[in-house]
Design a protein that fits this description.
The structure is a homodimer. By secondary structure, chain A is mainly α. Helices cover about 75% and strands about 0% of the residues of chain A. The radius of gyration of chain A is 21 Å and the shape is elongated. In chain A, about 30% of the residues are buried. Chain A binds a DNA duplex through helix 1 and helix 3.
Chain lengths: ~210, ~210
Amino acid sequence: MSRADQPLHGDQPVTNRRERARLRREEIILIASELFAERGYRGTALADVAARAGITEPGLLHHFGNKAGLLLAVIERRDLDSEAFAMELLGMEPADRLRALPEFARRNRERAGLAKLFTVLVAESLEPDAPGHDHFVARYRALRAIVADTIRSAQEEGLTRAGLDPETKAAEIIATLDGLQTQWLLDPEAVDIVAAVESYARTLERDLTGT
Amino acid sequence: MSRADQPLHGDQPVTNRRERARLRREEIILIASELFAERGYRGTALADVAARAGITEPGLLHHFGNKAGLLLAVIERRDLDSEAFAMELLGMEPADRLRALPEFARRNRERAGLAKLFTVLVAESLEPDAPGHDHFVARYRALRAIVADTIRSAQEEGLTRAGLDPETKAAEIIATLDGLQTQWLLDPEAVDIVAAVESYARTLERDLTGT
DNA sequence: CCTAACTTACTTAGTGCTCGGTAAGTGAGT
DNA sequence: ACTCACTTACCGAGCACTAAGTAAGTTAGG
């Protein structure tokens, strides 16, 4: 009834059919993300994803070609979310970025699935010929570069002591956050991820400023 | 020909048959460790392990009951190695323990398989009903307790500043080492694990002493 | 000391199930 | 007329695991 249901007259190619297919793919990717996080890529059968999505297995493969294609689609989609966060961080003053870390942890805690997805997939991608390997290698290199650049510019502004190597410190920061997340995912009752990250942010501030 | 080939007279029950079986199990565990590290628990078929060990699949199951039994045997065996290292650390003066970290990293670098095994298995054990879950939960709790105790006693001796919470700091230290290891396993060319751990040990010393 | 009974470390053969993937349509949009 | 998002039907391979036997080593009894 409403205009939104119908394609507009003709000023834009509102391809209703393609749009519906795109939404369907998005839905499938979301479902696959959850399952991959819970059982890993190898532990998840296409049939599991298909059943939850209310589609047949060949229907699934029609959209993604094969199982690895589905994995790559999942990774790509989830990277968009992370990229959005990275952009958010880069938009801040360097001094404020540290303070954003606990907020990041808080957000991750509410969506444990996403965190689990990456932890599981990275571990399954350690071998060079794993389907997601190259992607995660590139991802970590980019992440380290972003953090290292942040440190470098903070050094130039005199906010951070000059004695440390930005690349090494970047790897260390990412490692700590990843590692805390893993411990929390394994044993949420024993590890308070938000408190741990808050504490680490303070440690890091002392470390970076040299006070 | 030599006496060693024959059972001794009778003062000890030198059960030749049992001993050979034990050695066989050890050999299988070693092979399974390698495969689990490379392809994960789920990604490894019993047939793969059996083939490399020169035994049939049912022969394998005769020793370990089922696949999960093999996994637990692998974890248990590898924990003995880690425990040996923990004991070594605990035998040192608290002040020397920090200096042992790079040596630990150096050792792990030479045997990347062991490191990879744990990274992969922990990720596969995040879900509470995974076969290794309880084991890794207990392992991390024990590890955190050991490190926290070390910090606590260093505080009592005045070697470490009083203002930090030992439990939280323990989780942070373990997280950093784990996270660095993961980055290195994923991309050995981009991450120098020994240099990174050396740098972190210095960071940590400043952090703990408050200088 | 010899041998019969038992235990143990396997093997061969096979089972039922699940897996990712394909071939060949169908029917509704465009 | 054509495309495209599917479905039904199917496939061969691989999976963990079992049943049943075998041969060698170990132990107990006479």
